[in-house]
Specification:
single chain, mainly alpha, rod-shaped
């Protein structure tokens, strides 16, 4: 799995590449529309966070599986029974 340091580094790179900005706009929209927009924008942000979480979980699982398969392969290649036990 990723170490916390690797995760923070990757997150920093993601933030550099992703669109993040604060937009201040004056509008003559009805307040109800303003609320709808704010709610939608919050849902989009949360969906993005959820997606990143799922991707990280899948990535960690992939790495675990690859490590496990490599270990199995090494284990199978070991003829010496004492070495195999180790």
């Amino acid at each position: 799995t990723m170490t916390d340091e690797e995760y923070k580094k990757t997150l920093k790179q993601f933030h550099k590449l992703s669109d993040r900005h604060i937009l201040v706009v004056e509008t003559d929209m009805p307040y109800s529309d303003v609320l709808k927009i704010v709610t939608l924008s919050d849902k989009i942000r949360k969906a993005g966070n959820e997606l990143v979480g799922l991707m990280r979980k899948n990535y960690d699982q992939l790495l675990r599986t690859k490590r496990y398969r490599k270990l199995l392969k090494l284990y199978g290649n070991t003829q010496d029974k004492d070495k195999r036990r180790v």
